[in-house]
Amino acid sequence: MTTEDGSTDGVTGAEADGVDEYADLGATTESAMEIAETSMDRVRELVPDETLADRIRQKSVHATGDPEFQHLVRFTGDTEDEPVVAGARAVLDERPIVTDITMVKAGITGRGHDCPVRKAIGNGSELAKRTGMTRTAASVLELDREGVYDDAVAVVGNAPTAALALADCIEDGTRPAVVVATPVGFVKAAESRERLREVAAARGVPAVTNVGRRGGSGLAAGLTNELVHVASDVRSGEVELP
Amino acid sequence: MTTEDGSTDGVTGAEADGVDEYADLGATTESAMEIAETSMDRVRELVPDETLADRIRQKSVHATGDPEFQHLVRFTGDTEDEPVVAGARAVLDERPIVTDITMVKAGITGRGHDCPVRKAIGNGSELAKRTGMTRTAASVLELDREGVYDDAVAVVGNAPTAALALADCIEDGTRPAVVVATPVGFVKAAESRERLREVAAARGVPAVTNVGRRGGSGLAAGLTNELVHVASDVRSGEVELP
């Protein structure tokens, strides 16, 4: 798969945090397959395995290496499964996956989907200069002006200000297919996710987020890849969407 | 800065986990600067600020959003500061920074250094096919054959098998300037770092690692960026290396 920045690294998907050991998407050699199965087997001993939302919980544990993280994930929608269903549908519909920063984009799998993968950062530098807002926030607003976020898989892994900007866009009428937001840190990270959850709930936008200060690019990429994985299972008939 | 894969994204450094809010390297707008100072101020309230090793501890907390992570970092060397000093010197000497996967490479700052930044993944696919070892492990062995790891900043953020392969290389005589290894997960991640620490100690290779299952690409990139940051402070006279 060729990504928009010209990289032809078809193995990107195998490189996201934890995904290197992920049997169905990334592991292409015998040894990696073995690790993959053991790793997900261990996660399944620690996290329920009943619903689509559980798969996101499992992935959060897989990506962070921390069994406790399953309790920090939040699902915004009429049901817990709704954001997972919406995400899988968006992947099947080949909607764009739009990340905040390059690092998250680099973690999105190249396999199992034909979605264009874009990053926000790099856009809106004029706006940032003029207004003094962060470059990531400006980049989200700039892409939003171009209509990029409507029906897209909107992913924020790093920047609280990007999450806040995305919340503003949703409040102003933008409708992503699903939001995956796990910015990390001590300033505004938890608050930005809380605001995203409020706005998303009010506007009917499904979202996967977490509570607390933890999070990050690896987690955001991992959760997004799990949406791709669910879509693959739909395609192969293993999973049926409601 | 132009990276080896042709990307000209000079703002990469501002994109690593947590680095978007990092005043001296990444924050270029007023709003980002404010967040940056508050964020690192909060971290400094939670983590000692006396030694060079403390800066790595601070960064680990900053990157993970978890004050407890400071206790999980391990320093291999005659002193705790040694790997930080060795890393800063390697950066000042413009030695290569070699990451395991694309995602970690994407998180390495483009500012404050003139080191070539390379990734291992993408090399050694023949070896992986032939032997059944993971692609990341094969890629490390392949680069090692080319002598890439000698005197380099060797970074492993994702793949336990890459960390194990790097340990094998060190055992066989390779001498990185410093190792930064924080692979994450339930299978072999903690063990791979333990083995790296043993081999690095035995062979006199300074290393920054962590204990436990947690870790990941964002952390590895963040800690490596802190080495770059220390090097910048040496250049500006704020820090003197022993």
Description:
- The structure is a homodimer of 242-residue chains.
- With 242 residues, chain A is α/β, with parallel strands linked by helices.
- Chain A has a domain at 73-235: Rossmann fold.
- Chain A has helices at residues 30-46, 52-64, 82-92, 102-107, 125-131, 135-145, 160-171, 189-203, 217-235; strands spanning 73-76, 97-99, 117-119, 153-156, 178-181, 207-210.
- In chain A, helix 1 (30-46) packs across helix 2 (52-64) and helix 2 packs antiparallel against helix 9 (217-235).
- Chain A is globular.
- At the A-B interface, helix 1, helix 2, helix 4, helix 6 and helix 9 of A face helix 1, helix 2, helix 4, helix 6 and helix 9 of B.
- Chains A, B: It comes from Halobellus limi.
- Chains A, B: This is Precorrin isomerase.
- Chains A, B: Residues 1-24 are annotated as: Disordered.
Note the main attributes of this structure:
homodimer; 242 residues; alpha/beta; Rossmann fold; 9 helices; 6 strands
Summarize the structure.
Chains A, B: Residues 1-24 are annotated as: Disordered. The structure is a homodimer of 242-residue chains. The first copy, chain A, contains 9 helices and 6 strands.
CATH class assignment of the domain at 73-235 in chain A: Alpha Beta
As for the CATH topology of the domain at 73-235 in chain A, it is: Rossmann fold
CATH architecture of the domain at 73-235 in chain A: 3-Layer(aba) Sandwich
In CATH terms, the superfamily of the domain at 73-235 in chain A is: Cobalamin biosynthesis CobH/CbiC, precorrin-8X methylmutase
Overall pLDDT score of chain A: 88
What is the CA–CA distance across the termini of chain A?
Answer: 30 Å
Trace the largest sheet of chain A across and list its strands: 1-6-5-4-2-3
In oligomeric terms, what are we looking at?
Answer: homodimer
Strand content of chain A: 5-15%
Count every helix of chain A, treating DSSP H or I runs of 4 or more residues as helices.
9
Sequence of secondary-structure elements of chain A:
HHEHEHEHHEHEHEH
In angstroms, what is the radius of gyration of chain A? 17 Å
Pathway (chains A, B): Cofactor biosynthesis; adenosylcobalamin biosynthesis
Family (chains A, B): Belongs to the CobH/CbiC family.
Keywords (chains A, B): Cobalamin biosynthesis, Isomerase
GO molecular function, one term (chains A, B): precorrin-8X methylmutase activity
